[in-house]
Write a structure and sequence with these properties.
This protein is α+β, with helices and mostly antiparallel strands. Strand 2 and strand 3 form a beta hairpin. 32% of the residues lie in helices and 38% in strands. Helix 1 crosses helix 2. The longest helix has 11 residues. It has a four-stranded antiparallel β-sheet, with helices on one face. A three-stranded antiparallel β-sheet has the order 5-7-6, with helices on one face. It folds into two domains: 68 residues, Alpha-Beta Plaits (2-Layer Sandwich); 50 residues, no CATH class.
């Protein structure tokens, strides 16, 4: 099951490196990631993993709290202009409201939605 894990880290040099090293040492493969500073000295980091259990352990040992986790749809897309518009238009036509979207390794689009089953159905 593809899972997006959201954590908050300090907005400082080395914070993302510590997360990456901790997950790597625990054998967790990060299949996608998005990190954005949100002001006030903090950053939001989304991590795409297949098995969240070892990621939780590694993050807990690091002292990083998991703020949210959720199952996500991971869709292989072409790497060409207009693809994001095409995919999200299909979701829109199906009445799906996205709450998260980012690219993962291998040109895959990660999506969280208010109705994940409807999102998956719209894209098959």
């Amino acid at each position: 099951m593809a899972t997006d894990i959201l954590v908050h880290v300090d907005d400082e040099p080395g914070a993302l490196a510590r997360v990456g090293h901790a997950l790597g040492a625990a054998g967790v493969n990060i299949e996608g990631m998005c990190a954005v500073t949100n002001g006030g000295g903090a950053a939001e980091v989304h991590l795409l993993v297949d098995d969240p259990a070892p990621a939780y352990g590694a993050l807990e040992r690091l002292g990083v709290e998991v703020v949210l986790d959720r199952e996500v749809a991971v869709v292989t897309v072409k790497d060409e202009p207009g693809v994001l518009g095409e995919v999200t238009e299909r979701l829109s036509e199906a009445g799906v409201n996205l709450s998260l979207a980012y690219l993962a390794t291998g040109t895959r689009l990660v999506l969280a939605a208010d109705d994940l089953a409807a999102a998956r159905a719209a894209l098959t």
